[in-house]
């Protein structure tokens, strides 16, 4: 089942779009089946859960952190992850930079954008993105590679479109002066629309592994 799902999704993605298989709550066995079927990037929301799986699966795939990162988990996170997609404050960027410096690593990061401008949601407001980027550029052990957004929780996939559009507009604006390349948006129900709106990294769980 996972094999068919992975192959179907991969066959639908244009060549320039990379798949992040979102594996929160999935077992090592399920993840290995996805890897055997062609998955090359695993997305995890929780550091401890990722550590346990990483200890078995290891660096044969890339690991992306897509959850809300707490400061006390940064040291562990920088050891396993190849990208942190959810940087949304200068404070967390500083911590990542420090932890990476101590192990001689440079961490690729995306800035998480709160594209729906929801209260109590993680992510930076679109207006604040350039400020945080200016600060990140001074951090030698962080490499800014792009933007990520979730959007609000919506019933109708088509309703995600304005949030994806807004994030793409911001991406293009930042790209004028910075060398960024990844725009991570779209989940199981919305990745087709996200790709139409310019996503080149899609984060998909349910459509690969089934309902959680
Ligand atoms: C869970 C999750 C996804 C995947 O959601 P699905 O609907 O299962 O595809 C994508 N991005 C983030 C940040 C998530 O937490």
């Amino acid at each position: 089942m996972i094999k068919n799902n992975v192959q179907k999704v991969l066959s639908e993605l244009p060549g320039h779009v990379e798949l992040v298989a979102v594996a929160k709550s999935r077992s090592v066995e399920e993840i290995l089946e996805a890897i055997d079927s062609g998955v090359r990037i695993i997305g995890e929301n929780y550091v401890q859960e990722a550590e346990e799986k990483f200890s078995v699966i290891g660096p044969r795939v890339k690991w992306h952190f897509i959850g809300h990162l707490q400061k006390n988990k940064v040291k562990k996170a920088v050891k396993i992850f190849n990208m942190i997609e959810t940087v949304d404050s200068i404070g967390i960027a500083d911590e990542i930079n420090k932890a990476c410096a101590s192990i001689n690593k440079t961490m690729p990061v995306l800035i998480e954008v709160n594209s729906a401008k929801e209260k109590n949601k993680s992510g930076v407001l679109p207006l604040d993105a350039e400020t945080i980027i200016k600060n990140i550029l001074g951090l030698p052990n962080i490499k800014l590679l792009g933007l990520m957004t979730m959007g609000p929780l919506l019933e109708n996939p088509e309703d995600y479109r304005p949030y994806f559009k807004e994030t793409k507009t911001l991406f293009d604006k930042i790209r004028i002066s910075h060398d960024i390349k990844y725009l991570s948006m779209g989940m199981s129900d919305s990745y087709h629309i996200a790709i139409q709106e310019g996503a080149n990294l899609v984060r998909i769980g349910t459509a690969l592994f089934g309902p959680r």
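The radius of gyration is 16 Å. The chain has a mean pLDDT of 97.
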